[in-house]
């Protein structure tokens, strides 16, 4: 099969990879219908995360080709979506709704690499969810978004307790930030403030439900949020970038007793303890337990209540993956969909 291998930082190749096979009785083999490039794939691309001939990709939708002897909830021919973290969905942590921290958790990015024609998905019963049937072609991008960016944005909005009567501020206008805006709207937030200075992304933020745009960053950005909320700060803040400035901007924009959901992968962030202490806020974040939200998200997409597929603003065949990485790295594209 063909698949993406990153040889080193900035060095993306589409090469022949060995076809995956069933190894454990709980595995499934899927044939990908579509896959995509994630903002977090840019960390190894930029040399921030180690990379050496690594199979890439962790978002996926496709059709089950083969299942192991113990797989019960999906069968060959099913159209399925899975989370970017493998989970058994039965352990105590999974049952508490934190499947990304499952005792059997594995990152699809590190072990599988779904920017490929096929993938072996371990713990298929606990990881994959079948759709009610084969989707219309125009629903495929939306379903693919549920695999990570929509699920992650939704988790962030949920962690920030976005809901009726709440003012939600979203730091970050990448795909996850935009999906957090959509989630906040669906969860009934009264006011949604997008922090963005990119005109095209501001437009998309408004499409997904932003009521206000704040272009200022850092201390000025915090001051603007305070101005817009009678000095209080937002009830709910989503951090979807993962830099020092964006993280502290999110902390500062959250009102005392408010909730912050942080889902930006934050390699170099140092959180000053004393600032966090005096902020007096709730914090919840980390890799999103997408599996918790998948059935509900699939339902909303299937019924065409939500349209997360618009975050894909570049579509390329798998063989042109290198250009997809380049476009995202240069911020010419929000998110690249790869067709097979
Ligand atoms: Zn588990």
UniProtKB/TrEMBL annotation:
InterPro entries: ADH-like_C (IPR013149), ADH-like_N (IPR013154), ADH_Zn_CS (IPR002328), GroES-like_sf (IPR011032), NAD(P)-bd_dom_sf (IPR036291). SUPFAM superfamilies: GroES-like, NAD(P)-binding Rossmann-fold domains. Its cofactor is Zn(2+). This is Zinc-dependent alcohol dehydrogenase family protein. It comes from the Bacteria. Signal peptide: none annotated. The keyword Membrane does not apply. PROSITE patterns: ADH_ZINC (PS00059). Coiled coil: none annotated.
């Amino acid at each position: 099969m063909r698949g993406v291998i990153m040889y080193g930082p900035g060095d993306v190749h589409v090469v022949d990879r060995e076809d995956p096979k069933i190894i454990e009785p709980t595995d499934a083999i899927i044939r990908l219908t579509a896959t995509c490039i994630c903002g977090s794939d840019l960390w190894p691309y930029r040399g921030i995360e180690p990379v050496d001939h690594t199979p890439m990709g962790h978002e996926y939708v496709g059709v089950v080709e083969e299942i192991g002897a113990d797989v019960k909830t999906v069968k060959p021919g099913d159209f399925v979506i899975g989370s970017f973290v493998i989970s058994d969905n039965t352990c105590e942590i999974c049952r508490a709704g934190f499947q990304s921290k499952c005792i059997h958790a594995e990152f699809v990015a590190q072990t599988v690499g779904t920017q490929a024609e096929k993938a072996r998905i371990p713990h298929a019963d606990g990881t994959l969810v079948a759709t009610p049937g084969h989707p219309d072609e125009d629903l495929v991008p939306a379903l693919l978004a549920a695999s990570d960016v929509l699920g992650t944005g939704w988790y962030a909005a949920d962690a920030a307790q976005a809901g009726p009567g709440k003012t939600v501020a979203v730091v970050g206008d990448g795909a996850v930030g935009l999906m957090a805006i959509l989630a906040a709207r669906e969860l009934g937030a009264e006011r949604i403030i997008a922090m963005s200075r990119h005109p095209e992304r501001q437009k998309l933020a408004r499409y997904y439900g932003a009521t206000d745009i704040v272009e200022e960053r850092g201390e000025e950005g915090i001051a603007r949020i305070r101005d817009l909320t009678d000095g209080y700060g937002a009830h709910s803040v989503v951090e979807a970038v993962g830099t020092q400035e964006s993280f502290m901007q999110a902390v500062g924009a959250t009102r005392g007793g408010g909730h912050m959901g942080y889902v930006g992968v934050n390699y170099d962030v140092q959180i000053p303890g004393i600032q966090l202490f005096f902020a007096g806020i709730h914090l919840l974040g980390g890799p999103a337990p997408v599996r918790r939200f998948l059935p509900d998200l699939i339902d909303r997409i299937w019924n065409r209540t939500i349209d997360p597929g618009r975050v894909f603003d570049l579509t390329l065949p798998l063989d042109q993956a290198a250009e997809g990485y380049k476009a995202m790295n240069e911020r010419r594209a929000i998110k690249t969909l790869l067709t097979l």
